[in-house]
Design goal:
This protein is mostly beta strands. About 5% of the residues lie in helices and about 30% in strands. The strands form 17 sheets. Strands 5, 6, 7, 10 and 11 form a five-stranded antiparallel sheet that branches. Keywords: Disulfide bond, EGF-like domain, Repeat. This is EGF-like domain-containing protein.
């Protein structure tokens, strides 16, 4: 594959007898082999008065020493070029086979190497994603592909704005030469520069019907500035002598700047849009649904977040349930039977919910969601919301009242959680203990067992505990390194089942810092909790309207320790004599 450089000289203007203006030039092509080729080319000049833009159309070339064709561009046309040995154009070197071309997800029927321009034209225009394209073969070539290369120009005449490339599939092309592979490459000669605006920015679009109502002086066009059937307001009305002002009862409806002749285009102030600046804009948000533009690139900004309806008369979004916000940018929390989260919880975003997340043992997970800016996987970090329920309530909308939980008295051989703490210090110091995200009052290394027990019991996630010291109840929690170690045993009474270990938050003074060791799950004398933490102790049914347990026969409220009490948890197994008496009464 060779590269080439081009230069243009001998530029001259000529006028034909019919009055057509032409630029004629000599194009020199120099390959990296040092060989220079001269090509003569002429182009016709056209002036599109409706847009005031110069358009250039390639008429043809006269071949000199070798077969090399260059397509000059017609303005606002995307041209695809076929060439033999240039790496930046579409190349064919083959003798048989077929290829296909795809555009915006649709693929043509197979294009044979011997197909003529008319056949290729029909196969391309059969795609629904293409409105109309013209197909031009280079020089005198009559087949899609030739052994020495063919230039194929595809001219988009009805698709406007920046356009994606056609995608070629050369897998069925066959080269006659041994060890040689046919080449197919597609490049963009020029990015489309015609506007791709609703109603050509010269009319009002009805979003429910998709029909344009053109402003005074404009009518539907053919896509090239003349009247036609596109329905796009892209042509001047034949009944109007001339356009002398911008659209609107007053220029730009008083909400914009008029560019004046020759375009008479409105430039609207913030908060207004449309060709005459009469339409109010609605707030934008990250789109809930849209088409990806690249790998991991989607959810662009969109009016009403692409889920609501914009009321253009007032510039406000009407959001469908369950979306909310000025731009319908958030998914609402459940309302329940009352206000948000039934009035018994907090409505939080995904990012906030992540900070509240707990593992199966109830410890904070210390995770984040959406904290990294522009992370594609967490695009909804502040859009989706959920409820965190207050204590005593549960459910996705916090509408259900929680029932008491307790140990199932019908199961035996179970144990309560016991955790062991060893503390050695060089001088008196303070510390705190954390459990399931809650922190104890400040504890002292000289604190006696009863005081530590009372302090831990005040932590809502801990509840009742029993604290004992191996060195005696009044010895102090921590011991000097020169003294026998004190083992602090903490037996959990209220908190049931397998529990997470306590966490120490020690004094920040490193000189006085006590050294702590915490053991749980059966290590060094600790005991893993194996009793249940079950709703209604697995021996009743919960009435979520009232948060009370309806106990099964033979069960009653316990004291949390297996005896009769006021926990209302169905955790007490009635003695046989009481149950037999109840049966006798029946």
């Amino acid at each position: 594959m060779h590269s080439a450089k081009t230069k243009v000289s001998h530029l001259r203007l000529s006028i034909t007898r019919s009055g057509i203006a032409k630029w004629c030039m000599v194009v020199f092509v120099k390959k990296d082999t040092g060989v220079e080729t001269a090509l003569n080319a002429c182009v016709r000049l056209e002036m599109t008065h409706s847009q005031g833009l110069l358009q250039i159309l390639c008429l043809g070339f006269r071949r000199t020493r070798s077969r090399r064709c260059f397509a000059l561009l017609r303005y606002v046309k995307q041209i695809i070029v076929c060439l033999f040995d240039f790496s930046d154009v579409l190349v064919y070197s083959l003798q048989s086979g077929t290829l296909t071309l795809s555009y915006r997800g649709q693929t043509t029927a197979r294009i044979d190497v011997l197909d003529n321009a008319d056949t290729v034209y029909k196969k391309l225009n059969a795609l629904h994603t293409l409105q109309t394209v013209n197909v031009l073969f280079g020089g005198t070539t009559t087949t899609m592909c030739t052994a020495d290369g063919n230039m194929v120009t595809v001219e988009f005449t009805q698709n406007f704005g920046p356009l994606p490339l056609l995608v070629g599939d050369p897998s069925r092309l066959v080269h006659a030469g041994i060890g040689m592979t046919p080449k197919l490459a597609i490049s963009k000669a020029e990015i489309g520069s015609k506007e791709n605006e609703a109603c050509s920015n010269r009319g009002r679009c009805d979003l429910t019907s998709g029909v344009c109502t053109c402003y005074v002086g404009y009518t539907t066009s053919n896509g090239a500035g003349s009247p036609g059937d596109r329905g796009d307001c892209g042509a001047t009305d034949s009944t109007v002598v001339a356009i002398i002002a911008c659209p609107g009862e007053t220029a730009c409806s008083g909400h914009g700047y008029c560019s004046g002749a020759p375009q008479f285009r409105c430039y609207c102030v913030a908060g207004f849009t449309s060709g005459d600046c009469s339409v109010r804009t609605c707030p934008e948000g990250i789109a809930w649904f849209d088409t990806p533009t690249a790998d991991n690139r989607a959810h662009s900004m969109a009016v009403c977040s692409s889920i609501g309806v914009c009321d253009e008369s007032i510039g406000a979004c009407t959001c469908p349930s369950p979306f909310e916000g000025a731009a319908c940018e958030r998914l609402s929390c459940p309302l329940g039977l009352e206000p948000v989260c039934t009035g018994h919880g907090r409505c939080l975003t995904m990012a906030e919910l992540a900070l509240e997340a707990r593992n199966s043992l109830g410890d904070p997970l210390s995770i984040t969601y959406g904290s990294t800016p522009n992370e594609p996987q967490t695009w909804d970090f502040n859009k989706i919301q959920g409820c965190i329920c207050d204590k005593g309530f549960e459910g996705h909308d916090c509408a259900r009242r929680s029932c008491p939980r307790g140990d199932d008295p019908r199961t035996t051989g179970q144990t309560r959680e016991v955790q062991i703490i060893r503390c050695v210090y060089t001088a008196l110091a303070t510390f705190t203990l954390s459990f399931r995200g809650k922190v104890s009052p400040v504890l002292s290394s000289s604190m006696v067992a009863a005081d530590m027990q009372a302090s831990l019991a005040s932590v809502s996630t801990i509840g009742d505990v029993q604290v004992s010291y191996s060195a005696g109840p009044n010895s102090g929690a921590c011991m000097l390194s020169t003294q026998p170690a004190n083992i602090i045993s903490i037996t959990f009474v209220s908190a049931l089942g397998d529990l997470p270990p306590l966490q120490v938050n020690a004094d920040r003074n490193t000189v006085l810092l006590p050294v702590f060791t915490i053991n749980s799950d059966g290590i060094s004398g600790s005991v893993r909790g194996t009793n249940e933490n079950a709703e209604c102790s697995n021996n009743g049914l919960c009435d979520y309207n009232t948060g009370t347990c309806q106990c099964f026969d033979g069960m009653a409220s316990s004291n949390g320790l297996g005896g009769l009490g006021l926990h209302a948890d169905c955790g007490y197994l009635l003695p046989e004599t009481i149950r037999l008496a109840d049966v006798a009464e029946i």
